[in-house]
User: Fold these one by one.
Assistant:
Number 1:
Amino acid sequence: MKLIVDIQKHLPHYNLEVSFSIEGETLGLLGSSGSGKSMTLRCIAGIETPTSGTIVLNNRILYDSHRGINLPSRDRKVGFLFQHYALFPHLTVAQNIAYGLKGLSKHATQRRVIEQLEQVQLLEFGDRYPHQLSGGQQQRVALARALATEPDVLLLDEPFSALDTHLRNELEKQLIKTLSSYQGLTLFVSHNLEEAYRVCQKLLVLDQGKVAAAGDKQAIFDRPGTLAVAQLTGCKNYSRIQHINHHTVRALDWNCILHTVDPVSPVHTHIGIRAHQITFSDTLNQSSDQPNVFPAWVVWTSETPHRMTIYLKLGESPMNLDDYHLQVEVFKEKWERLKDRPLPWYVHLNPDRLMLLHP
């Protein structure tokens, strides 16, 4: 299975220019609202038409502007799971799933519908109508309908966005299980960084209609390359830099000098570090044998059920609540060990974890 996409589409606020290929894996599309993620999926499905370019699936041309080829959606062997499911309200669950099954005998259609209902654990719901189902059940029916036609490509456009947290977690597990036995390719659009990371093997990061990064998910998180990709993949700490030498910079917004493992080049304008990768020294004194250890004062904190976000100022005590340099995320067990320490604390910005970024 292989999908090759190389398309351009003129849009009111930007031009979509996307080029990538996917082969035997789940690809996550990340980006801010309006970056072109959903439009890319709609072009692949045939719901929207690019201005120019090509889309090729398993050596079968779905779209080619130069040759005048533009297969209708029904002939593309593409399954699409919309953000709001788009189930037909006047059809039962079984009829919704069977809707796209053309050319099969009645018996074969019934067998395919039962297989899909079993796959999404809704076997006893075939005679119900969409309004009789919960949001999570509707989402599972929509997934079953998308897979019933045995598509070569499955397109998932933020399938969990309308669900509450508990249902999102449950259905994410269901989706991962379902995709493990799916033989085709999957493209998964999500605003949720951690969700995309759990579901997908590869990532494609879009920024204002352009591909900002593509490749293995861990490589993109570890070395995002650009400031935009670092921000889109959840990096909360970044600073402008002044070059000192090949492995030393001054972080202008953090007011400190940092040593780096990666060589600094003239194209680098910023440095970053992820909030969960900042660590604290276990001693109350600055360690003499570790680079990038600085005294820090707690400005304020915020919490979730499991984690604390600590806002820190380096070098001196803060003037007000907006006077901080870094955000650090720790589990609450770690916070319990930290919170009663006298200030300043000592933070370590590990040179291995620092990301050199260009515009």
Note: The radius of gyration is 25 Å.
Number 2:
Amino acid sequence: MLFEFNFYSSLLLITFSQGILYSFLLAKKGVNQKDKSNYWLSAFIFCCSLYIAPWMLGFAGWYDSEYYRDILFYIPFQQLFLLGPLIYFYTQSLLYSEFRLLRKDFRHFLIPFIYILSSVGIWFYDHFIYNGYYFYADGSDKDFDDWYQYGGFLSMAFYLIQSLRIYNRYRNKIFQETSYAEVILFKWIKIYLFSFLILMLLPVLFRLIAYKYSAISTYEGSWWYFLLYSVIMCYVAITAYTNTVTQNLKLKSSGDGDFLHPVDELTPDYTSIVEVQEYTETTLLPELDFWKQKIISILTDESIFRNPELTLVNFSEKLQANTSLISKVINQGFGLNFNDFINKYRVDAVCDCLDKDMQQHMTILGIALECGFNSKATFNRAFKKHVGKTPREYMTEINRN
């Protein structure tokens, strides 16, 4: 097989090979762990690898040989309209515990399917009817047409926005539903969505650079763009494969891009509870003071905030009330979401222990864990938010007094 090894083709070959390798490793990981999210990311990395293939093979001499040039012409390597949907459904598969592709979701793949079908039609016409280059008379690859490149950019931008929208809904939901929200905020989602944004903006960046340095717009100059693109792709692939990303909170999709309540394995009757309204709702609840006092009493008497995995479902069970009602009471009566409300009680408990010099027998982190926090980072952020000082600053102030 023709492949001219040189500075340009060899480096892209390395990153291309890594992308293909990790796409298969991610697929295998999905099979072993029965995690469908890995399938989506595997497909995304595979398409990213194919995206750089024409340039890697072009630098390896394929466009200079008619036989190999035909492969590049008639195989749609750059599936720009497929990258966005793959990221979009990958995000959903991470956040929804029981995500599955519905019939209506196939519309997201209509444009990529049409593009592949048109490529097959062009190949068939040129080789079996026209017997020559009718569609490729100008000698340029259709993957690089402006309409396709710009259209692909807009498609990816649309799906990035949709993915961010889903993540923000998830974020708002878990702050309303759990007392350990920061632990399950999925830092990984921020990483890969930011990486996807960079991949999207790279063409824009290089076009701006080209205005100042015209050499970057040449065939050789464009190599730097594809090298940087492939490096970011490899970073996403390797990071995803080597890190464990799991969904411990069971959130179900309502079917319209929203989330339902977390489901407790021990309380199946709560799976059909109506969805919580946003706490910005201005209509005051009847008997608000009654429920506020009841909530305060159960937290004071039973200290259930010490449960590091406390959820709104657990809390509502204790109160023998609907989760929607309790969430609204906390939102309206205390001006906090459930996560911040429970963490405030935990912080108060930590401060009480510190005021009693319990740190002489336990570390501050040990006290925090006893009071219901499940990580040092979450404790430090919650403490700073509710007290206005770091734990160390608070201790310094106590020692001075």
Note: The CA atoms of residues 81 and 133 lie 25 Å apart.
Number 3:
Amino acid sequence: MRENLLDFTQEELANLVSPRFRAKQIYEWIYKKNARSFADMTNLPANLRSELESKFTTEPLKCVKEQKSVDGSVKYLFELYDGKTVESVLLPMKEELVDENGETKRHPRYTICVSSQVGCRMGCAFCFTTKGGLVRNLSAGEIVGQILWIKRENAIPYERRVNVVYMGMGEPLDNFDNVVKAVKILSDNDGLCIAPRRQTISTSGLASQIKKLGDLNLGVLLAISLHAVTDALRAKLMPVNRAYNIEAVLDAVRNFPVDQRKRVLFEYLVIDGVNDSQKDAKALVRLLHGIKAKVNLILFNPHEGSEFRRPTLQAVENFQGYLQLHGVSCTIRQSKGLDISAACGQLREKAKNGELAKVAVSRDTRETGKSKFEKGENV
């Protein structure tokens, strides 16, 4: 089997080709010029192109299904070399703005949510991905490949930067080395040039790995899936809390290097009757005291087999209001993809069960449109 060329940093690739400067040319062809084959790399010698073709692939995954929401978000199901599948999501964040002369005042902005594992071992009670447990880690190139494919297929120009969130299937810090390597590959100036400050690593709270990540000081943003204000409840929702309780997680966060202009993001999944009371809001304010924090409230997105219910918007707005009144920056995440198997793992599970026909629709014929604004999201 040919190796995945996307698994290599430019320095590693330079040790495999001769002369070394060819590595930069290869990187530019793949990441800047969207070359899909080595034959396209016309400034490389023919013998080198032939050698690369025999040893490497630049296509580590293929899209087997996709669903597009009326709000413009798109969920992709990717098949890997071994037949395993993972999901990614393209989220349009801001539309293009054009002035009266037809000139662009603001380019469209996107966030790409990527998977880091096939399945997950964390066992969170509210999560669909964990249903089948952990199957395997993704390689760095399989993570990078999701972003490269989505940018290319949606004709997002190289110079248009995107935000990347490691918040799809899997626990990123449980696949630490490959996620860190993906961050470095993505941020390479000769590659996709996605700065670390545009990359957010979301974790369920592996305190020892948060410390390890902080020691590397990569410049990435950190998001903590908190979801509860007591260890008793968090342990029920998130078994990882038995190994790393709330205090251990917050201690690790306090020592994490944060850019002066940034905050640590705390994800708080609001579940009806479970963690949405004013008492919970008060406790959250106390927990985050002294931390440069921002809270992102997410309305639980129901899925088949779940015992939990989506909260009312009023309850979530009341929760937000209390936090803001007491000096905690807080947003309610805008809903996206509620009409397209939005919860992580749903599209994958439906595909496994044969509930979805293969989608093979050209970009020009996909339905477009905008849904009314509704707050809350669980992608």
Note: The first strand starts at residue 3 and ends at 4.
